[in-house]
Amino acid sequence: MAETIFQKIINKEIPADIVYESENVLAFRDINPKAPVHVLIIPKIEIPTVREIIGSEHAALLGEMYDAANQIAIDEGISDDGFRLVFNCGDNGGQEVYHIHMHLLGGRQMKWPPG
Ligand code: 5GP
After folding, report:
1. I want to staple 107 with a disulfide (CB 3.0 to 4.6 A). Which of 8, 37, 53, 103 is the partner?
2. Mean pLDDT across the stretch 14-30?
3. Are 86 and 100 contacting, i.e. CB atoms less than 8 angstroms apart?
4. Quick check: CB of 5 below 6 Å from ligand 1?
């Protein structure tokens, strides 16, 4: 499968506004933000969709992604007011980039249900 745009960001082949990096996780600002704070949190290994997540194999990695989200929310000053975490999956889920990513959205009141 062709390299995704997020793999190019991991490889530092294209620039991104990186806000968090660890051995296994990278987070950077969304290029087309849907909220005052919109950060994408990704694993450095390629997992195309959440359908490929296996609990016994990826539990620690997902835990790291949630830890990163909480830390970034604190750093961005949106933790106390609240925020939204979203994984889109597949066509109906509205997924555009096939390398899993957690959207961290905050800095405004979110609506429910989402569109
Ligand atoms: P999805 O629709 O797959 O859940 O979300 C993909 C997200 O990636 C979109 O919000 C889109 O704006 C963002 N995105 C796509 N290409 C790039 C890029 O090259 N750089 C950054 N920072 N974000 C991107």
Report:
1. 37
2. 98
3. no
4. yes
pLDDT digits (tens, 9 = 90+) for 70-86: 999 999 999 999 999 99
Q: What is the pLDDT of residues 35-75, one digit of tens each?
A: 999 999 999 999 999 999 999 999 999 999 999 999 999 99
Q: Is 110 helix (H, G, I), strand (E, B) or coil?
A: coil
At residue 63, φ and ψ (nearest 5 deg) are -60, -40
Contact (CB, 8 A) for 53 and 92:
no
CATH of domain 5-106: 3.30.428.10
Q: Indicate if the alpha-carbon torsion angle 43, 33, 11, 92 is positive or negative.
A: positive
Question: From the alpha carbon of 86, which atom of ligand 1 is closest?
Answer: 4
Nearest-atom index, ligand 1, CA of 34: 10
Sign of CA dihedral 8, 9, 12, 15: positive
